[in-house]
Amino acid sequence: QLLFLQMASGARIGELIYASTFENDEARHGLLQRGVLKSKYIRAIYKPSLYIEPAEFVERFNAVRDELREYAAAEDAQKLNPVLNRRIRKAFNNPTITTHDLRKIYANVAFSLYEGKETQAYFTSSILGHDMASLAISAIYTTARVELTPAEVQEIRRQRGLKKYGYSSRIVSLGANLW
């Protein structure tokens, strides 16, 4: 479940098990993620939900969070990552793939489906919660190429009721008083 949620949201494992909360953003057919690891600021980000409806994502996320309540710190996420990486390698039959690569896959699929007027680096930065002052970090995420045919993109957009520029990624700064 945890790996599926990562593929659907692009969130870091630590964000899924202890650092973030997620809300259904029905108006934009996506998720509002509050709390971003490796960020200098307290903030929330809007991001698309892939492979699953946002409401179902939130329901599954809450169930997984309840199940993993004992893993509520950074050290716990660090302990879980090697176990999850072994599972990913077995599932993909690839000895080098990691949870970090699942974030790359998420970012590339999301860009294919929801590309707007921004560059891929900007879009990736905004949905993964990277510091916008350093778009170079997001270039790392473009090394994984997930190519969808135009027919596949059109069918997914049709199923989800999306227009070509139907999702505008945006970072929302939150004041410290919200935490």
Short key terms for the protein model shown above:
single chain, 179 residues, alpha+beta, 4-stranded antiparallel β-sheet, 8 helices, 4 strands, 11% strand, globular
Q: Supply Rg.
A: 16 Å
Contiguous low-pLDDT stretches (5 residues minimum) are: 164-179
Tally of contiguous helical segments: 8
N-end to C-end Cα span = 27 Å
How does this structure look, described?
This protein has helices spanning 2-9, 13-19, 54-67, 74-92, 99-114, 120-128, 136-139, 150-160; strands at 21-25, 30-34, 43-48, 171-173. With 179 residues, it is α+β, with helices and mostly antiparallel strands. The protein has a 4-stranded antiparallel beta sheet with strand order 1-2-3-4. Helix 1 runs parallel beside helix 5 (99-114), helix 2 packs across helix 4 and helix 5 (99-114) packs across helix 6 (120-128). The radius of gyration is 16 Å and the shape is globular. The two termini are 27 Å apart. Residues 164-179 have low confidence and may be disordered.
